[in-house]
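ok, trying the design again with the full structure, not the truncated one.
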């Protein structure tokens, strides 16, 4: 049977004209595993979950402790949107020496037992350890064994062993990463040159002698084709690992591959300033921990292991920039601005300072002075410290190590990590949407013909204006007609129909952070105010 089907009707289903989103955040953490970990050295392990840490890297490895800190920060953000966590594990070098320290307990006077009930409070690497000492407990055995056992139960990459009151502390991984581990014993009384808890004499020996770190040659080759917005590893591995990998990615052709490494170091101020003078990179952030060498407080005044603290900050940055991640618990600004309760590109312009972390409180009266913080920030360093109420640890300004341009002239363009983040997100947004909008376009020096996919200078400008307005709507660039006109008027565009190329440049204003408020109040004794 013949069927007449006129008129012929075809309905094509076309995709909506949606803007392109940003790439999902990826965090790469590098560190040392234990021999018990099943991970293969220097291979890239993607999308690591907390439940895998013990099996892959060893329960109390340096790397395992850093990764648990990452997940501890993730736990502050309930929901389903989280940064992807990738890991590269390293084995100890063959000739590696493990850093070691000690806490030695001995009896004062003729007896060998505790005279009165008391509590021995110790902090190692940011972890509090308390030992209840009961009257008549043997100091060299019962008390010292209890101290070693408590340390071994803490989430630390350290093993404690008691030998007649000398509690030896040895890093579980070899190399220099354990040399600045904090040991702090609280509540001691000083008599002459010695320290006591009741009749228990306590002597602390700082961690030292760790030597020979893993070989890092070609370490990041396995990550060459992947963009990592945030990179973290122990400072002891050197800054070149970060800058060699990331600086060349800051501006690349036909791709967005930039990222930032976040590290932390412990040293005396003078030595830190020397170290900060060497790198000059917008892709590198170094947090600075003040060294302490008191008799019963050695290591760093921030208490926590440096590579654990920097892993926390790395996680926080990745969480902030993850679209739709619930960051209300790590973003004080969310109290006044509901849009800032969720992560995404708009958070790039929100200050890092006052962001809370789960790092342990600094001991009262310790840490950098205000003038020292200024000196460190001027040199390209960042710090963290207690909030004003002493209830938690927060970030101060987060500074990159960028200080001068290629000619050596002082340049503050990339001083603040926020400026790097804003330009990174803006560039990525323009890149991805230009790829989408110009996926198959004709280029003409003439007019656009309706019904054909074409572009000329005027259309190109209109697209750039749309991108600018989209970024203005998420608080990355100023939102006003004057701002848009400023951007448009600064545009310089060259259309080359021989090569099919549009070259443009423009001044691109960005939203910055409120970093200082000055209010001058003039005293007035006026009596006629009613």
């Amino acid at each position: 049977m013949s069927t007449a089907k006129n008129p012929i009707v075809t309905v094509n289903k076309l995709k909506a004209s949606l803007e392109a989103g940003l790439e999902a955040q990826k965090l790469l953490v590098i560190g040392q595993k234990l021999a018990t970990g099943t991970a293969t050295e220097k291979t890239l392990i993607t999308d690591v979950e907390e439940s895998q840490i013990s099996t892959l890297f060893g329960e109390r490895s340096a790397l395992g402790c850093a990764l648990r800190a990452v997940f501890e920060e993730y736990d502050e953000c309930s929901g389903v949107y989280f940064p992807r966590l990738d890991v590269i594990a390293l084995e100890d070098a063959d000739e590696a020496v493990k850093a070691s320290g000690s806490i030695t307990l001995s009896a004062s006077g003729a007896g060998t037992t505790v005279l009165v009930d008391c509590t021995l409070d110790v902090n190692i690497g940011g972890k509090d350890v308390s030992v209840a000492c009961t009257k008549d407990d043997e100091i060299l055995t019962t008390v010292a064994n209890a101290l070693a056992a408590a340390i071994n139960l803490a989430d630390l990459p350290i093993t404690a062993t008691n030998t007649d009151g000398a509690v030896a502390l040895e890093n579980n991984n070899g190399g220099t990463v354990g040399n600045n581990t904090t040991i702090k014993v609280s509540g001691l009384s000083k008599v002459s040159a010695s320290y006591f808890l009741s009749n228990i004499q306590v002597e602390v020996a700082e961690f030292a002698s760790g030597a020979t770190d893993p070989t890092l040659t070609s370490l990041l080759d396995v990550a060459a084709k992947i963009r990592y917005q945030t990179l973290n590893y122990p400072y002891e591995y050197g800054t070149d690992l970060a800058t060699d990998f990331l600086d060349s990615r800051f501006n690349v052709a036909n791709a967005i591959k930039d990222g930032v490494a976040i590290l932390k170091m412990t040293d005396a101020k003078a030595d830190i300033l020397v170290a900060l003078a060497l790198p000059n990179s917008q892709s590198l952030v170094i947090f600075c921990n003040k060294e302490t060498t008191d008799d019963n407080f050695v290591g760093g005044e921030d208490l926590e292991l440096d590579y654990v603290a920097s892993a926390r900050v790395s996680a926080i940055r990745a969480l902030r920039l993850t679209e739709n991640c619930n960051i209300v618990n790590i973003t004080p600004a969310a109290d006044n601005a509901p849009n800032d309760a969720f992560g995404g590109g708009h958070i790039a312009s929100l200050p890092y300072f006052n962001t809370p972390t789960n790092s342990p409180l600094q001991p009262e009266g310790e840490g950098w002075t205000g003038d020292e913080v200024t000196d460190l920030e001027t040199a390209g360093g960042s710090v963290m410290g207690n909030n004003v109420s002493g209830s938690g640890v927060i970030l101060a300004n987060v500074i990159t190590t960028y200080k001068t341009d290629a000619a050596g002239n002082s340049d503050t363009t990339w001083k603040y990590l926020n400026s790097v983040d804003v330009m990174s997100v803006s560039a990525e947004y323009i890149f991805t949407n230009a790829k989408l909008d110009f996926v198959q376009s004709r280029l003409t020096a003439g007019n656009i013909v309706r019904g054909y996919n074409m572009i000329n200078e005027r259309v190109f400008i209109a697209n750039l204006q749309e991108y600018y307005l989209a970024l203005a709507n998420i608080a990355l660039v100023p939102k006003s007609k004057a701002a848009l006109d400023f951007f448009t008027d600064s545009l310089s565009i060259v259309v080359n129909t021989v090569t099919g190329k549009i070259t443009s440049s423009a001044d691109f204003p960005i939203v910055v952070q409120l970093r200082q408020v000055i209010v001058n109040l003039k005293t007035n004794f006026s009596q006629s105010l009613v």
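Keeping the full-length input from now on. The chain has three domains: 98-208, 216-291+305-417, 438-530.
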